[in-house]
User: What shape does this take?
Amino acid sequence: MIQLDGICKSFGENEVLSSLDLSAKKGKMFVLLGSSGCGKTTTLSVIAGLTKEDKGDIYLDGERINDTPPHKRGIGFVFQNYALFPHLNVYENVEFGLKAGNKRSTRGGNKTEVKRALELVGLDGFENRNPMKLSGGEQQRVALARALATEPECILMDEPLSNLDAVVRERLRHEIAQLQRDIGLTSIYVTHDLVEAMALGDRIAVMNNGRIEEAGTPEKIFYKPENEFVARFIGMKNIFEGKIAALDEDNGVLQVSTGNFDLTTVFVPSSVGTRVKACVRPEEIILAKSDQNTNVRSARNEIAGRIVSISQNGPLMRVLVDVGGDEMSVDITRLAARDLGLNRGDRVLLTFKATSVYMIL
Amino acid sequence: MSLSFRISLSLIAGIFFGFIVVVLSCLLTATSFAEFAGEIRSPEIISAILLSLETSIAVVLLALLFGIPAAYILATKRFKGKNILDTLVDLPIVLPPLVCGLAILIAFGGDGIFNRFDVLFTVKGIILAQLFVASPFLIRSAKTAFESIDQDVMDAARTLGASEFYTFKKVSLPLAQGGIASGVVMTWARALGEFGATAMVAGCIPYRTETMTVGIYMHAMSGDISASIALSLILASFAFTTLIVFKYLGTIGDGNLETRGAAA
Ligand SMILES: Nc1ncnc2c1ncn2[C@@H]1O[C@H](COP(=O)(O)OP(=O)(O)O)[C@@H](O)[C@H]1O
Ligand SMILES: [Mg+2]
Assistant: This one.
């Protein structure tokens, strides 16, 4: 278990970590998610002892390790740019930690450990290769094997896949997840990639400006974030400020009024007049032409609007609809867009369930 | 590139290279093989050659001993006054050797703070003077080599359980090898060719403090020009060899770390 308590770190005037708290459970994969420059690498560097914190405490399995030098912390590190030893071959790279830590018993006694580590990452037979001549994916495997060979207490991975092409990235991501689960290694994995975070994390912490905005399970972070920054970060487009206008406990719903329109959502004990932020995921909205007669009565929300723009959004189409002054993003399939014959300026009807609306209180 | 431009460029370059070749070949034409062979058998010349080799090699070893730690600290540590120290290292490069020599002369002279050391007009003095003038080349070159090592690579060593010293020994030094070797060659060449500071500190005592450069000056001034030429030709051949070695090391150093790794 790795725990950070109130870690502060500045580089000159630039405060990079501001009272950061974090707790990564033993044997689990903890993902630190945040955009570039928010302090992710610095956080890992502080945990590993490569960067000295200005303030705060670092605990490894309950023991304070602030004053333990990096080579005595037993924390493995996998770097974004692999950081292999260019003057050593693959075998010597993997063996480095065993020799450095003086874990060598007899002459040539590291052979089995090195072989096992290389087998773990699928690089058996690569012993005599020059690491600089390997592909990016293979280099990162060597780096992984090198870190695992020393059997660290835990491992820190700093965007290990970000320099790889999409196919290799996905394959290696699966392998890292598998490996981590098999070994049960306490891991902190840094990424700016939502998909990676979602796929790997037992827990995800979203980082912003040198602190953690929210930490939770992937489901929590991606579907019901409690923090507006996190909601926006994970791509929640439709966030509206409003007030609770009416409570209907009998039907299990309540009304939120944004001023421009009303939204119906599931009942939560609260009081009329409370300021909230109401969120609807773009893919939960059904779009219909206003002149067509639709009957989706199970939906509790029906809002009329006018299309502002239609654009490509990955495999989907992102339709921006003006709803009485606010804008709502709607994701529909390409097929649906074609069938409906949508154009800019078309009047449309947005329908979605009450359960699709959730509130940040 | 227009033809006339190309011709004028070649002309200018040609004049420059021609001048160098003509001047240097004057050394060769001013002597004969028999004369040269006779001179290099003279005990005084042999003593000068040996003294130059001994002192310059001692300088290289001392420069390694003091220069590598200095270069490593300058390259990897942050501390107050680092810029001052950095400038200080370069100072002997830009300072006229005579000035360095005079400073040593005063420091180790009768009223100097180091006057209890018997250095002036001795071989120790020669080594000291050469070290003073030549070691910055090694420090500079090694520092650049240490600086160009990826910090992450050294950090990786630390997270793998390597102490700072082990990392220095097994990662920094091997990766800085090329730069250190170039520095050694430059320092050695500079020490071998050192005249001003050496003459100032150790004088020109035949068989005792007469290095090759000092000998060239002394014999030329006393009219024994064939001895000067013999020493000059030997020095020139050393320099030429150095240059070739240096060019070779340069091509290694130029290749990034990746290609150097291939040799491992
Ligand atoms: N050694 C350093 N010296 C000065 N500034 C640094 C240093 N390391 C990081 N920073 C600054 O700290 C901020 C956060 O950096 P980093 O932790 O690398 O972010 P991330 O990994 O999330 O992209 C950046 O603004 C960066 O410029
Ligand atoms: Mg980073």
User: Anything to note?
Assistant: The longest helix of chain A spans residues 166-183. The radius of gyration of chain A is 25 Å. Residues A 40-41, 158 surround magnesium ion (ligand 2) (CB under 6 Å).
